[in-house]
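Summary: Need help interpreting a holo structure output

Steps to reproduce:
1. Submit the protein chain below together with the SMILES for NAP.
2. Request a joint structure prediction with the ligand placed.
3. Inspect the structure token block that comes back.

Expected: a single structure record containing both the chain and the bound molecule.
Actual: see attached output.

Input attached:
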Amino acid sequence: MKKTGFIGYGSMGSMLINGFLKSGVLEAEETAISNRTMTKIENLVPEWKGITITTDNRIVARESDLLFVCVRPLDVLHVLDEIKDDLTSSTHLVSIAGCVTISDIESRFPGQVTKVIPSITSEVREGIALVCHNSKVTKDRMEYLEKLLGAISRVVHVRENDFEVAADFTSCAPGMIAAIFDCFVQAGLKHSEIKSDVAQRLVISTLLGTAKLMTEKGIGFSELIRRVATKGGITEEGVKVLNNHLPSAFDEVFFKTLSKHEIVKEMIKSQRIMVL
Ligand SMILES: NC(=O)c1ccc[n+]([C@@H]2O[C@H](COP(=O)([O-])OP(=O)(O)OC[C@H]3O[C@@H](n4cnc5c(N)ncnc54)[C@H](OP(=O)(O)O)[C@@H]3O)[C@@H](O)[C@H]2O)c1
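--- attached output ---
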């Protein structure tokens, strides 16, 4: 029996693996994991009987027909160089690395390749998985992969050219949302004796409620602002300040994140022509 394999058990690899196993969409006996550091994966064995764990990426590559590469972007081509002789035409390779293009992967493995950008929020089954397949991925392989991803997230197809901005909106956004609302809370606390953890809980609850309200009632951002920031009211004052300052801040956010994408992509491009 061919397995579903994972190389890299860090923040994202562990989220995917545990999400698939816990949701029951993947069985332990059909799962193989390799990670550079063994101690990180050892405790999976007592919990998931029959799971394969190793530090040898080539074993996982050989045993898997679906193989997730979950290492950092600059490590992806190194790993592909190590395992490329173990991949076959029936291997379906999935890269979850931002900045690594499908053509970067194809420079080492000219077979079935899918780029997926998951989001940490899939840990609570509320994430988006951005997906783009190359032309070689068969219908069966697409369906199987999307069944796995669909068990923990909502699968959204995007053109590869749109990945960077889409990834800012989904996989980077939890970090940015946390940064934005941390500033919101810290500023409020300067004018009150509310404890920091209480303030954080108030805001998180409101974020959840806002997302739920907008989703369940199909309300867009402008409509919600109109409903809350009534003319001459308190919220309107705050929204005016945000409208003055945030557009330029977010222009800079996208300028910086997209520039960083380009820098890393260039570094990966230079790895493509190097013998690693
Ligand atoms: N974090 C996110 O929210 C997020 C979202 C979307 C996409 N991604 C993408 O997901 C990928 C992984 O990110 P991450 O946040 O999970 O990184 P991470 O926490 O640093 O995990 C990377 C893992 O890869 C392992 N590793 C490194 N080199 C290896 C090798 N040669 N062979 C086997 N294992 C190796 C590391 O092992 P050790 O235990 O030895 O360190 C570590 O467990 C990145 O490409 C990133 O772009 C991340």
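--- end attachment ---

Reviewer comment: Residues 7-13, 34-37, 40, 57, 70-73, 75, 79, 96-98, 117-118, 120, 171 surround NAP (CB under 6 Å). The radius of gyration is 22 Å.
Status: needs-info
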